[in-house]
Specification:
Blueprint: E1 10-13, H1 20-43, E2 54-59, H2 65-78, E3 82-86, H3 92-101, E4 106-110, E5 119-126, H4 134-147, H5 157-162, E6 166-169, H6 172-180, H7 185-191, E7 194-198, H8 207-214, E8 218-221, H9 243-250, E9 256-260, E10 267-270, E11 276-277, H10 279-292, E12 299-303, H11 309-317, E13 321-324, H12 328-337, E14 340-344, E15 350-352, H13 361-375, H14 379-388, E16 396-403, H15 409-418, E17 423-424, E18 427-433, E19 438-442, E20 447-452, E21 458-465, H16 468-491
Parallel strand pairs: 2-3, 2-4, 3-6, 7-8, 7-9, 12-13, 12-14
Antiparallel strand pairs: 1-5, 4-5, 9-10, 10-11, 14-15, 16-21, 17-18, 18-19, 19-20, 20-21
């Protein structure tokens, strides 16, 4: 099989392609790359030799994730890389922050994030605590191919621990201290909030609830027990997967509902009325809060599938705004170059100024608690007030995921560009972009995006407009456009 790293790592079906054999192959390639990069740094400009390289290894709650993490640690240690291995499951952003805290050369996270339970995966992280560059991932792929079946090096995990090659550790204390510098725990405590938290059986369990309790909140957790199959649910914090949290909020006992995905790098929220607050609205509310309440400044970075509300707010406050392809690594590039106030994706991966360049559902949940505590209003009310402003306005959003047969992304994009209609849902198309998939921007600032997933055999169709009816019309027309082009590709 061919191991390919997508927008945020390699993912495959457990026991089919995601096997211990293949995990060890990836680990061997990562070890070789880490050693090679370390040697280059150690000898640049005649620098003195540095201690042996180190990588942090973490894992989520999925089936066998802890065992896959041990397998990775065994290979890394056998190659001379010191391993900091988390004692138990931890969120991706917590593992990533540990890289920075430990001054490690990078890290490996065993997770398939928000993907269905049958998947697992490997995320490779750089020394700055964010996703490695596409070039680095291609280097790992090349090394896997070059190995030509040679067996990876390996040392038993217990022997590696006994020899000091692998160190088990708890990443929570350092992460907890860090987020206290980014979130106003005193403001949260003063509001005496009651919060319902749904980690969806994922690695956010314990972490978000514990920090909220330390901030003085009364917390009720749903679906927080260890369940490697996620009880059959898809651990993505979107409305259709959050019915238990929505029903809990409708009972009226809590001020705020928060949900994180399988590895807690994504956030979803539910208002006191049971209204789902999607990541578009979360980002807009956080941007408004950070500027108007915290008096912070910086650029705004969003992916092509993210709300125009951010553009409107950036214009209001005179902030630079950038649009990138999907994938948090593109946001990371900006965060490494300049002060980014907020950067995020429609899927709920969001980071802020002062944090590592990594989506963090735990931190965003704490910040939403700060927003509610500071303004003493439910999220839904704050959102209504934001959209009532003349310079922002009402925005509605929708997305459908359509299973598809394999095809070349470039061919679909070329076909959609070549056969673009003059109008969609009764509005003239003002601009077309092929930055990532094909995005049709309409004259009224609405838009439709058709984009193949980078990790699943799925075509994603996104739309944002001023009314729910227009969103539905755009999604319907987008699906028809995509089906026609895919049919043409299959028959040619």
């Amino acid at each position: 099989m061919s191991i390919h790293f997508g927008t945020d790592g390699w993912r495959a079906v457990i026991s089919e392609d995601f096997t211990f054999e293949n995990v060890r192959k990836v680990a061997q390639a990562i070890a070789e790359k880490t050693l090679a990069d370390h040697a280059v740094r150690s000898h640049t400009n005649g620098a003195a030799p540095q201690p042996r390289p180190a990588l942090v290894v973490g894992f989520d709650t999925r089936f066998l994730s802890d065992r896959y993490a041990m397998a990775v640690a065994e290979v890394l240690a056998a190659n001379g890389v010191h391993v900091w291995l988390t004692r138990s499951d931890s969120p991706t952003p917590v593992t990533s922050y540990a890289i920075v805290d430990k001054h490690a050369d990078g890290g490996v996270m065993i997770t398939a994030s928000h993907n269905p339970p049958r998947y697992n995966g490997i995320k490779f992280k750089a020394a700055f605590g964010g996703s490695a560059s596409p070039a680095d991932c291609k280097d790992i792929e090349r090394r896997i191919t070059a190995a030509n079946g040679a067996p990876p090096k390996r040392i038993d995990i217990e022997d590696a621990i006994a020899q000091g090659l692998v160190t088990r550790f708890d990443p929570f204390p350092a992460y907890g201290a860090h987020v206290r510098r980014l979130v106003d725990f005193d403001q949260i405590a003063a509001a005496n909030l009651s919060v319902a938290v749904d980690p969806m059986y994922g690695a956010g369990r314990i972490y978000l609830a514990r920090l909220l309790r330390e901030a003085g909140c009364q917390v009720h957790e749903l679906r927080n027990e260890m369940n490697p199959g996620f009880n059959g649910i898809h651990p993505e914090p979107i409305a259709r997967h959050l019915e238990p949290l929505i029903e809990t909020m409708r009972a009226g006992d809590y001020h705020l509902g928060l949900a994180t995905d399988g590895d807690a790098d994504r956030i979803g929220a539910v208002d006191v009325t049971g209204q789902f607050i999607d990541p578009h609205c979360i980002m807009a509310l956080l941007l408004e809060h950070l500027v108007s309440r915290r008096n912070l400044r910086g650029s705004v970075v969003k992916t092509v599938s993210t709300t125009q509300m951010l553009n409107r707010l950036a214009a209001r406050y005179g902030l630079d705004i950038y649009e990138t392809p999907v994938g948090f690594n593109h946001i990371t590039d900006h965060m490494l170059r300049e002060p980014v106030l907020i950067g995020g994706e429609e899927s709920g991966g969001i980071s802020i100024l002062g944090h590592i360049p990594e989506g963090d559902g735990v931190l965003m949940g704490l910040l939403l608690a700060e927003v509610v505590a500071t303004q003493r209003k439910p999220l839904g009310v704050l959102l209504d007030e934001l959209m009532a402003a003349e310079d922002v306005g009402v925005f509605r959003y929708g997305r459908i995921d359509q299973p598809v047969r394999p095809f070349k992304k470039a061919d679909l994009v070329a076909g959609l560009m070549a056969h673009a209609p003059h109008a969609l849902a009764g509005e003239r198309i003002a601009q077309i972009s092929d930055r990532d998939g094909v995005k049709y921007i309409l004259a009224d600032n609405s838009w439709l995006l058709i984009r193949p997933s980078g990790t699943e055999p799925v075509l994603r169709i996104y739309a944002e407009a001023r009314t729910d009816a227009q969103v539905k019309a755009l999604l319907k027309e987008g699906a028809a456009l995509a089906e026609a082009q895919i049919a043409a590709l299959v028959t040619t």
